[in-house]
Amino acid sequence: MATPKFNSKSPTIRRILREAQELSNSPSPDYTATPLESDLFEWHFTFRGPPNSSYSDGIYHGRIVLPPTYPLRPPSFRFLTPSGRFETNREICLSISGHHEETWQPAWGVRTALVALRSFMETDPRGQLGGLETSDAVRRRHATASQTFKCPTCAKTNLEIIQECEESAKSIAATSESSDVEIPSELKMGWKDEMGKLTERQHHAQETPRQDDGDAESAELAEGFVRTAPKQGGPETRQVPRSQVPAPDIAAGSNGPSPSILTPTRTVSLPPAPNVRQAHQRPHDEGVPLWVDRAIVALVVLLLAMILKVVLDF
Questions:
Q1: Which residues carry out catalysis?
Q2: 249, part of any domain
Q3: What integer pLDDT is reported at residue 42 of this predicted model?
């Protein structure tokens, strides 16, 4: 079978090859993970159950799928062997919140995620999405049966795979010291199919208040325009608060003059401002100076005198 060719210049491919080499050079007696020869983005993992637990006799096998944007997005894990703790063939994603893939840190790798997933088996499944609540007897029965599980792709049983890991780890331990993997405290687990649903719900919840706020803001602005901008060509309307209308004093036996009773009105109509300005401007524009009036009177008097003189001469 020909060895497939990969683009070694791709940052994702270089990262995957480096992690695979690191896991091979520093094996652990408790877990292993290797990529497929035909697909670097699909790995198979095998690990022992956590010690001092109902899973301690179990050896669990599964698949790892790396996204095309790895390590910017987290790998997803899928158990192929029943454990009584996790559902089989359901993708698991690891992130800070356990609900958003975007919170995955690129500094984490397959080894860190694998060790964290192994430690999560000891946590209480109650209240967790996809967590199986089974008895310890059922989990021990699954643990015993998992040793003989044989993956068709790997063509080895779980027991054979973990025995090879132990032998490799012993040979490496004779020449170098092994260091424990520190699990980030903020690393959490979540089901991939639930992540998408939760992200959609949160996105919808965030968009709904924004829409309501926008409607409220629009209504507030519309109300402001109604209060401050009168219609063109129509009468201006002013609101008269009830608190400013004096209450009539109608107390019986009052000796003073009876005050006028004001009828409260809610609106007072005024003529449009442009028309008022035009009415005030007409007397000023069309008015005649006083000397013109006097000159007209003098001319009329002279005209009458001339007429009388002509009449008297005849």
A1: 93
A2: no
A3: 97
